[in-house]
Model the fold of this input.
Amino acid sequence: MHNWSLVCFTLFTQSAIGLVWVSVAGRWFGGGTQADFSIWPMSIALTLTGLGLYAALAHLAKPRLAPNALRNLTASWLSREVLLVQAFAGAVALLIFISLLEASPGLVILETTACLLGGAALFAMARVYLLKTVPVWNSPATILEFAGSAMLLGGALGAVLTVFGATDQTGKSPALIAAAIGILLGLILKLTAIFPSLTAEQAARDQTWYEPTVAPLSKGRALSVRMGLNLAGLALILAAMSGSGPTWLWSCLSLACLGTGEVVGRQRFYKAYRRLGV
Amino acid sequence: MLKRPAFFLDAQICTGCKTCMIACKDKNNLPMGVRWRRVVEFAGGDWVRLEDGTFSQNVFAYYISVSCNHCRDPICVQACPSTAMNQDGHGIVTVDPQKCLGCRYCEWACPYSAPQFDQALGQMTKCDFCREELEQGGLPTCVAACPTRALQFGEYDQLEQAVRHGFGLLMAPLPPPVLTEPNFILAPHRDAKSGQTRAGAICNPEEVKDA
Done:
């Protein structure tokens, strides 16, 4: 099975959700005035969600029947995921439209709605993989990993956009602080996911018959590469915050490190698939 | 039509000839790589050193013919986002080709590899108990073809009563039946290993793994 379409869908969508969270937190942290609202993070989030949904279509053998994916909302988490991601995209689009109006009524309510829909979409995305017949995925690690990806990538994207949009280069803007907190939270979630991941992998080894197409996490190399890239990303964002040197370069390198780590990790996630039974 | 149709396999007399598998492929004109029924060979054993210093062996092998078990709690039906995978009043699980979008999520979930992806059609396909044969009072083709009568078909309750002995045993490499409540009754082989034992392995993965 080709996983690239799913890697793109999950990572793009999670980045978009994280970016909306970090941007909203940054604006609120900075006082929440309408003048602080930036259209760019929301536009990038909408574009990423659109690209993610387009990538998801590439996963289907019959993309023209994609609307059928919404038929089983009562039982299928995949249906709910598709609906919630689209609702999230809709809320972000509405947020962009409202922000263009002079008065911008209900901006905070819409921001809250977009954040909540993003959270719900993220949860549904993780629930899709919590299959009782796939022990390597059926673990709290899946939820922690997905939430961690949203925070890490959203934080890194938020930092890049803040640095490029900043009028002063002190690097201490509320948006940049929110982005750094996002990255730190993401890293904590990723670290928290390590133990349940190893437990799930052991359960899969004990209960399933076929070998996965990827080396086990417990061998260490994949894990250390990812954690190394994540730590490098955090260090670079802290360098950007300190204001020393080219902050735009530090933030771009941070995004590159975190993005590479996430792509490696997500590919590994799909390749680790092993199912109970025959 | 039966109220709760089910397959029965007597693993003790199944010789692993794969006639059921070939009959299914032939009857349904399945393309290469699509196997609605598969025969799993599970084998293991080693040399064993006895107390007197001599060696014996505990080698074993048995076969399990598996197709869709039209489970009472079908995980494929729950997982399918398009409701293409559906279960009728008799418990027969089928795919609606008008709805299936080929996301293959059912394939991920099913512990029996029952939904099989047909590359040419771009959708999932699977065993339907040879519904048209049943409607004419016949048997599923795989059952009719079995030369040893190891594979049988009938009403779940009657089959269960007939093989009360050993029923419910978790037999490797099958998944725990509590996962999906399959309409599949198994009379275990005398060397059957229970559960997820490490004392054996699937010896024909190329024949039974997903295409």
Chain A touches chain B through 34 residues (CB under 8 Å).
